[in-house]
Amino acid sequence: MISEKGKKDKRIEIRVSEYEFELFRRAQAISGDNTFSSFFTRIMYEESKNIIAENERFLESERDREVFFEAIFGDTDTEPNENLVKASQRYFKIFGKSENRKVRETPHQK
User: Fold this and answer.
1) DSSP code for 74
2) Could you report the per-residue pLDDT of 91-102, keeping only the tens digit for each?
3) Closest by CA position to 6, among listed 55, 58, 54, 45
């Protein structure tokens, strides 16, 4: 991992249209950044971190989705582990099978 605080010895050169250049200069003046370089570096740094964070959130949610659907719809030949069997037995001992259970009325249904 590269340190965030380090010697600034790398250069970036880009070509932009005259319109973009004037737009960037105007934004820099409004922003209060003393130099165009500090303005551009700050904006690029902030936006880069946002893009990376968004991508990581997307990948996490995509991974979560894949794991969830694989668990539900994946290999159905797998057997439940011992903890799941015990939990299921406790549940049915307390609540019974669903066809034997009556749904309790809530106060607003009376």
Assistant:
1) S
2) 988 888 766 555
3) 45
